[in-house]
Amino acid sequence: MDAADAGRLWRRIACLGLGSLLLHVGTTLAGQLHSVLPITEKPGLFIIQNGCVLEEMVHINDEVRIRLSNCTAQPGTIDNPIAGRVSRVGWQQSATHQVELRIALVGPECITTKLVDENQDHFLVSIYRCGGGDPATTLNLLSVHGLALAIPVQGMNLEMFIDQSLGYVPTKDLVRDGLPNFGSMRGDWQGRPRLHQGIDIYVDSANVMAAADGTVTQAMTGRYSGRHVKIRHSATVSTVYAHLKRTLVRKGDQVSRGQVIATIDGPTGNAIESQLHFELQVNGKKVDPYHYIKQNPALPIELQEKIRRYEQKLIEAAEIRAQLVR
Length: 326
Fold this sequence. Notes:
This protein has helices spanning 3-15, 135-138, 158-163, 174-177, 289-293, 301-325, and strands at 31-39, 44-50, 53-60, 63-69, 71-72, 76-82, 86-95, 98-105, 111-119, 122-129, 140-144, 147-150, 185-186, 194-195, 199-201, 206-209, 214-222, 226-232, 237-244, 246-247, 254-255, 260-264, 276-282, 285-287. It has 326 residues and is an alpha+beta fold. The chain folds into 2 domains: 3-129, Immunoglobulin-like (Sandwich); 147-312, Glucose Permease (Domain IIA), CATH 2.70.70.10. It starts with a helix and ends with a helix. Helix content is 17%, strand content 42%.
């Protein structure tokens, strides 16, 4: 790849919000965290920066810790930036070219965070309050063969599910981790290309729920999938949950819709970032859950549009990843 090609590739990476891939195209200049701006209308925090690389996000009880590498900053704090949701945000230099942000949450049981690399100038931390009611009965993800499946992450609504699966482009290692959508390429960087046969939901410190009543047919550990669980819901429909930290069920167990069956806490198997790999199998064949999600007549127009935008972004991200593999 010559200098002109590298320049064009970087411009495309920047447009797609893949600023953390800067290290792949070769720079040694440290970035800088400039400021943190609260957003109250759609609760969240803009982390204004340039050149920093998202290294890690850890959710511990009522605090989220975000580590940025290749980064410098003057220390700062904001008290009560989002009333009733975030009580304090602080940041400081924790090591040479490394900055740590700490976000103190109010009511950790009902607040979830997601980190999105919005563009090369800032990160967006969106903060969601979990919906009321029993997620086992209220949060339907899709319907297949007359069976309604729930969202498999506790406390997650449909927009969060879309944002943290189709809407998430891995920031640590796009080549090895691959893209989250069904049918994306895996293993090509090793010369063993294969297609991804599930979807990845990027979450951490989360409980994994059974999508519907069923029988556990597998609860084991694999080299690539880490700990994983498979549940047969009917004669034709099964689901698989992989990259788990801890499993709470065994083969042969009967489980109920919404029952917590496992936990996610850091990456396992061949995952680079913490995530839930979710598979839907119909008549023994692995199929794309989004095929059924998009068929839901009750899917709001704004979420239909969001899915279309994310799908287009993933097409462009796949082209960038292919160039990095080469």
